[in-house]
Amino acid sequence: MLVPLSWLKDYVDIDVTPDVLEEKLFSCGFEVEEKYETGHDISNVVVGEVVECEAIPDTHLHLCKVNAGDAGILQICCGADNVKAGGKYPLALIGATVYATAKDHKTVEGVMTIGQGKLRGYDSFGMLCSGVEIGLTEDLYEGAGYNGLLVLPDDAVPGADVKPLTGLDDWIFDIAITANRPDCQSIFGIAREVSAVLGSPLHEPDLSYTQTDVKKDGFTVNIDAPDICPRYIGHYIYDVKIEQSPAWMRRRLALIGQTPISNLVDITNYILHELGQPMHAFDYAYLKGDQINVRRAHEGEQIVTLDEKELTLGPNNLVICDGDKPVALAGIMGGLNSEILDTTNEVLFEAAKFARDNIRKSSRSLGKVSDSSARFSKGVDEYTTVMAMKRALHLTQELNCGKVSSTHVDRNSGNSIEPSELKVSVSKVNSILGITVPEDEIIRILGNLNFSPKINGDELTLSIPAYREDMESCQDVAEEVIRMYGYDHIVPTFMPTAQVTPGGYDLYQRTELKLKRALCAAGADEGVHYSFFSPAYLDMLGFPADAPERKAIKIMNPINEDLSLMRTTLAPQMILAMQNNQKKGILKGRLFEVGNRFVPKELPLKEYPDELETVCIGCFGENEDFFSLKSLVDTVAGTLGIAFEYEAAQKPFLHPYRTAQIVCEGEAVGYLGQVGYELIDELDMRVDSFVAEISLHMLGKYYGKSQTFKPLPKFQEEKRDLCFVMGKDITCAQIENEIKNSCEYVTAVELFDVYEGMQLGADKKSMAFSVVYTPGEEEFKTGTVDGFVSTLLSNLKDKYDVTLRS
Amino acid sequence: MADLNELSEKLSAIKSEIRSELDRLGSSKSVFEYKKTIFDSKTGKVGSLMREMGKIPAELRAEYGKKVNEVKTWAQGLFDEMDEKFKREEMRLRYEAEKIDVTMPAKMHKQGYLHPNTLIREQIVDIFGSMGFQIYEGTEIETDYYNFTALNTPDDHPARDMQDTFYLSDKFLLRTQTSAGQIHVMEKQSPPIKIISPGKVFRSDDDATHSPMFSQMEGLVVDKGITLCDLKGMLDVFVKKIFGEDVSTRLRPSYFPFTEPSVEVDVSCFQCHGRGCKLCKGTGWIEVLGAGVVNSKVLKGCGIDPDEYSGFAFGIGIERIAMLKYGINNIKLLFESDLRVLEQIRE
Fold first, then answer.
1. What DSSP letter does each residue of A77-133 carry, written as one string?
2. Which of A415-424, A493-502, A545-554 has the lowest mean pLDDT?
3. Best mutation site among A24, A495, A570 for testing chain B: the one with the most B CBs within 10 Å?
4. Do B227 and A473 touch (CB under 8 A)?
């Protein structure tokens, strides 16, 4: 919120510098996001009095002698048409900074530094300036809009700085207001805080007015929806003269970025920023039936708002109606049909409280945001509603833009505007903070906040003004005390009263970290990807229509389509991460991610969906192949103290012959494989890439499985290297399982060579295994192991037609 | 004595022969070979002398043996000396031949690295775990109730506008804050409660400085007599462990619906030590987290008696800490899995 210092000073005496004020506001909870001097770009511009002025023949220029006070009499060439001897104008001295304008002399194009110049052969030691050149507009300073020199008042002293003279020494504070303090969403609201923090008295804006005896007979207000319109105040104004607002009001509106429109409309805008109460002014002549009805809109009812847009409404929208039609969309925007025009002669002022969530939702659903709706959405209090109407009537008289009738209607079903009593315990306030704030400090602080504090023993009694709707409990009081007392009084303690509790990771969390570390040790970097992805990824990976991956939860209001589905697989983002690296010229790498897949029990969601923890591994580059990925997958198994088995499998996006399902204790827990060439081509990937996904949530039951020690063998083990010849389709796993199951003494089987070649025949291959036989309680007798081997050989022969290579 | 004289002559002849022979030897191997011709008990020039002991009269044998052994010891000494000399030389040559360029790159098994978020999370868990905090991980998909209503943010509350929420249905949403976990814990567990709750959170914000997904870590303590001073003490420990012992904290007023008083916690800039720099935007302070005393309405809603118990809560942005600590300039880099990024940040 923008707060001009000069305006703020209307309500509170401020004798500190802008920097100190910023610090004070910051310390009590109001962060100044930005603050700047209105003339921050302007420097070294003084009042110049033209003492001589001669036209330079055949040009539009004048050669002037200008009295610049201490800087002496300067020769200045000036092209403006209103320069004349005796005139006083802003004079930019050499070295001054002012705004550079475009050829139209209106559009600011940047800041320039004035140097000594020469025009048509005449030296010029500075520049006489227009209003635009020193950052002023007609609204900010009367006369500044003229396309020529800015004429300064006759009493201006030559050589004096123009900034104080033209309001360029004012300061604008842009203050962030937290959501619990709607009462501070105005300049007067901030003034209350400044008054409290500086301990400086607060001056209320003038609310006085006198009303005439004139009445608008028969005028009525009906509230059909008091739940969302707890207070509605209307006041009838007549003999209205629509004119431009006075300079002081136009300047203030301009300082906060508001364009002045006309006196009546400006009064409502001024009060919105001064007090934080949105108001509306209706042209009474266009209100049918001398009545105002506040009700929910009928389904399909229409209104054309001030910005000439037609809106179709429904019962969730609150409307202000006359005798037969809506004349305003309550709290959001007035209707075009009752707009204040230059010809307006009678006005109805409206100050009301509308429920903040109704206005917020209405404003959102209609896509219509105004200063008024933004303000109502934050919450308006009735105290301010009442105050605002008085202020509007006062300003109407002060600006002399209409007569205040005695027709005043106030419909009230809302909160009282009288202060309410709050009793809290002093010791409880201190116990929340953990320090003892001296009682006189408590009294001082809460007194400055206008809470009229009284302490009786441990009881603190406060009288809470109605605008402080946030003050409800002891904790609220504690917060008020400490933010004004200062958080630097809070001393660090280390929970002296707390019980000792066991801390740290549980087994599942510890295991997850162990797994991540193991994958790092195996050379993989950890990545993190979004929990949502694009539906296009599911097409990219070629999942059929009935694939479980397609049953994904949709985000109702995604940022865009690409971030609209909760992911059901981690693979696409991993493949794209590998693509992204390859695009940047990184042609080898290993990555993993541990994250959730989201699987709904039903759609639309009726209960919490399953969030299934999954590890996804990717690797790419010329040194990688299926088996290097498999080693990473085995790292997962090894870390968890379990063993995976692998079965050839198919996935739509993976190589048909280089893909396997991962099985643990008979359960399919994931897959691994080489990314298919179609996808590699489509994504312009440059090297072979591999991806695996393992459902950690299915492996949780194995976490922390305790390992038991097996005593070392008592007797000598025997090792046999066996080289088998077999058909090409026989798998390693088939032979390995056969060996393992052939005899209880087999304790290790390891493939150490594979050979295919002409000697064996085109349809044959050989695989060589080394097999370890470990004796149990007795030593092997001579020939025992040979017996095992010959049984194994005959089994292999029978089952797979495997022979021993000679 | 004639025999002994003869022996003496023989021995001095052998000695001079050994002397002249040794000068011709060029390697430890040749020394070894030559040694055999001297010491071998059958054929060696000295070794064989001992075999002749039998032929010597008994009374001379001791003297004979002594003389032979003297030469033997003398020769052994010479051989050892030569041998050592040659071995040293040979070693020197071998070393020289094996000279390498030590500045060539190391042979490495490539190591991978944990994500910066994980690193920060681990550091935080270490700190709070050691102080008795358990780790509670909530779900990424939450209900409106746990994410807002139970945190004193009912439907009409303007604080809802502070966060742009992704909705999955009327009831379900992507959690906007890990604070949602507070309620689950307080519903299930009675005080004393000390938890931290790390996790991914989501807000509909996607621009240069915002990512629609980021990570937070919520902390919650509920016990008897917990105060704002305890919060300050706890956070002092935390920031010192994360940013360094010389860093100090500053509390300033703020607002969160579920805490009161609410504070923003700033740390003194660890780069410029408070003098003002680019990192702290010239203020000397860096905002790192939000915190406060748990609102009694929240405690009540979870069935905890606020007259008996009080507590504090804090919320830390993990990426924010990671970016500050490691000087990462763009939050989006953390979610792109660019190996050049991931491999820079190490423990």
1. EE--TT--TT-EEEEEEEEEEEEEE-TTS-SEEEEEE---EEETTEEE-SEE--TGG
2. A493-502
3. A495
4. no
**B114 chain-A contacts, CB cut-off 8 A:** 516-517, 520, 526
Q: A506–B135: do the CB atoms touch at under 8 Å?
A: yes
B341/A contact by beta carbon, under 8 A: no
- Chain A residue with minimal CA distance to B195? A503
As a whole number, mean pLDDT of residues B218-243 equals 95
Domain B116-342 has CATH 3.30.930.10: yes
> A206 lies in a domain?
no
State the smallest CA–CA distance between residue B42 and chain A in angstroms: 45
Domain tally, chain A: 6
ipTM of the modeled complex: 0.87
Inter-chain touch A509–B262, beta carbons under 8 Å: no
Chain length of chain B: 347
Cα B22 to chain centroid distance, Å, stands at 59
> Cβ separation of A493 and B233 shorter than 8 Å?
yes
Share of chain A above pLDDT 70, in %: 100
Q: In this structure, is residue A352 part of a structural domain? A: yes
Same domain, A670 and A749: no
Q: A652 CA to chain B: closest CA distance, Å?
A: 24
pLDDT at B1 (0 to 100):
44
- Mean pLDDT score across all residues of chain A: 95
Examine the domain organization and report whether A687 and A723 are in the same domain: no
Q: How far apart are CA A244 and CA A349, in angstroms?
A: 18
Q: How far apart, in Å, do the first and last CA atoms of chain A sit?
A: 92
> At a CB cut-off of 8 Å and minimum separation 6, what does A307 contact?
A333
Q: How does pLDDT run across A726-778, given as a tens digit for each residue?
A: 999 999 999 999 999 999 999 999 999 999 988 888 899 999 999 999 998 88
Full residue range of the structural domain in which residue A773 is found:
718-804
State chain B's mean pLDDT as an integer: 90
